[in-house]
Design goal:
By secondary structure, this protein is of the alpha+beta class. It folds into two domains: 6-324, 2-Layer Sandwich (Alpha-Beta Plaits); 341-375, no CATH class. It is built from 14 helices and eleven strands. The longest helix has 18 residues, at 288-305. It is globular, with a radius of gyration of 22 Å. Mean pLDDT is 92; it is low at 358-367. Bound molecules: iron/sulfur cluster (SF4) (2 copies). One iron/sulfur cluster binds at residues 131-134, 137-139, 157, 174, 176, 178-179, 190, 246.
Length: 376
């Protein structure tokens, strides 16, 4: 267990499925070098197949006795889908516009399909997913090479690519299937929670770019942080599939309202709701009832009195109201470790030969000047 834990809360009532977060992450980290099929951040339609296909049925995680469960390594062709591109040049030269491989499957293949019968009772919502930077990571427990580690300073889970031998036990061990195999370098790779940004007091790219302002980021032990209030004080943000036993640190405010159903004559069925509570129980456990009760009662309070700290928190009037990150904390850790004020707090990841770009960014003689230069 790390000394402190960073956490993210995603408000599903506000997610519009625009995929801006997905693109922010992809263009920053995974659009090249064997990572093309990886989606460190993806937003899937629920109910749906998800990414990779049917990930909830692929095993991994822990049983109630704490034993690691066997899991399946998804297949590129059938479970992720081979990524494709287009011959854009053909458009300029009068040729026909074609994908470079025949698309057979991919993320969001079933976007917006959901479940139920249109127009009577169909429903869906969006479920954004990143690595949960779990307190008890299945990926870490499964690795026989001790290549996966959890940072002391903030609980970010990283892969030491120099130690990783590409055995892929981690992929089987992660019940969320949020760690991926890079066939170009024969290593496993995953979300790094944008730690180079976090250490400078900036939120991860997915959270920074989110147009729905759904994502809150902060330390779970910081009682003034939004994540503390939503997770521990109001208890309206819940972990996803906590029955997997990994203690995830991404929390979700569950979808609270959904439209009423229609009868066969197209009339509204008063008092009905399209979103089955059983689906929310499956994802977020029994505590989802308490969370929804609290959300509804605070909405009512807000309507009647104009006051509700919880509603103000969730509305997030200002972008900066969503993040409580602390670059001074990281500076202190770096100094305590004998480094420069702006030094990375943990060099195990960035000192590897596979992460040389980060290595050259940070390791020059005067780090303050280097960071300034880089920001220009
Ligand atoms: S979500 Fe998966 S990859 Fe991420 S820390 Fe948990 S077990 Fe590891
Ligand atoms: S950017 Fe925000 S609103 Fe858009 S899909 Fe991602 S989490 Fe949802």
């Amino acid at each position: 267990m790390s000394k402190r834990q960073l956490a993210m809360v995603i408000d599903l009532n506000k997610c519009i499925g625009c995929q801006t977060c997905t693109v922010a992450c992809k263009t920053q980290w995974t659009n090249r070098n064997g990572r093309e099929y990886m989606y460190w951040n993806n937003v899937e339609t629920y109910p749906g197949t998800g990414y990779p296909k049917n990930w909830m049925e692929l095993g991994g995680g822990f049983d109630t006795a704490g034993d690691l469960q066997p899991g399946i390594i998804p297949n590129l062709e059938t479970d992720y889908g081979v990524p494709w591109d287009y011959n854009y040049d053909a458009l300029l030269h009068g040729g026909s516009f074609e994908p470079n491989v025949e698309p057979t499957w991919g993320p969001n293949w079933d976007e917006d399909e959901g479940a139920g019968v249109f127009p009577q009772d169909n429903y869906f919502f969006y479920l954004p997913r990143i690595c949960n930077h779990c307190t008890n990571p299945g990926c870490l427990s499964a690795c026989p090479r001790d290549a996966i580690f959890k940072r002391e300073e903030d609980g970010v889970v990283l892969v030491d690519l120099d130690r990783c031998q590409g055995y892929r036990y981690c992929i089987a061990g992660c019940p969320y299937k949020k760690i991926y195999f890079n066939p170009k370098i024969s290593k496993s790779e995953k979300c790094i929670l944008c730690f180079p940004r976090i250490e400078q007091g900036l939120p991860p790219a997915c959270a920074q770019q989110c147009v729905g302002r759904t994502r809150f980021v902060g330390f779970l032990d910081d009682k003034d942080s939004q994540v503390y209030k939503l997770v521990h004080e109001y208890k309206v943000a819940l972990g996803l599939r906590t029955d997997y036993g990994t203690q995830p640190n991404v929390y979700y405010v569950p979808p609270t309202e959904s439209p009423a159903k229609f009868d066969a004559n197209g009339k509204i069925i008063e008092g009905s709701t399209r979103l089955p509570i059983g689906e929310l129980e499956k994802l977020f456990g029994e505590n989802v009832h308490h969370a929804i009760r609290t959300l509804r009662s605070e909405m009512k309070k807000r309507q009647e009195t104009g006051e509700s700290e919880l509603m103000d928190l969730l509305i997030a009037y200002q972008h900066q109201d969503m993040f409580r990150l602390d670059n001074n904390y990281y500076r202190k850790v770096a100094k305590d470790k004998g480094g420069y004020a702006l030094a990375p707090v943990d060099t195990r990841y960035i000192a590897g030969k596979y992460t040389k770009e980060s290595h050259t960014l940070y390791f020059t003689e005067d780090r303050d000047d280097d960071i300034k230069r880089h920001r220009k």
